[in-house]
Amino acid sequence: MSAQAPSGGFLVLGLGNLLCGDDGLGVTAVTAVARRYQVPEGVLLLDGGTLGLSLLGWLSEAEDILLVDAIRDGGEPGTLVHLEGDEVEHAARERLSVHQIGVSDLLDSLRLLDAWPRRLALVGLEPEHLELGLSRSDAVESALPILVDAVVAEIRARGHRLTPRTEHEEPADLLDGRHAARSLGL
Predict the structure, then answer these.
(1) Domain formed by 9-183, architecture
(2) pLDDT, tens digit, 9 for 90 and up, residues 40-74
């Protein structure tokens, strides 16, 4: 898969910092989808990590965008959260995890460039802790399969077919954050 989302395509963007506990759940979920399924033409799975405005090129080319991230919604840790349209923009300003300023700036930039997607959604989990650390909370860890299923359901709801990978098949089409960072010269 190319490093650039096809014009008018569907971008599934995992966000978060794997070094901040539950904050890395978006990246983990998108990576799990890429490992389990062959992704069809017109869909780009991207580990956006905390790259912020560096992701603008990918987002500005996409017609549909699904953000996957930790989101504070006032529920119990591990609770699935699903937001659409204007709710996403509001959440990016107020309720996303520790990198919220980057996501908010990214969405503002899309508006300024008149590149707002036809459809914008966010799925994620309520985090328990966002402190520095490599381990996720038990609540988030046990809810990750639910989040992965929600991401798969969103992709399928937009008319894209995901084919399960065989047990020995490697996901050559996963563009992870290391590749994205390298392609951006970071």
Answers:
(1) 3-Layer(aba) Sandwich (3.40)
(2) 999 999 988 766 677 877 888 899 999 999 988 88
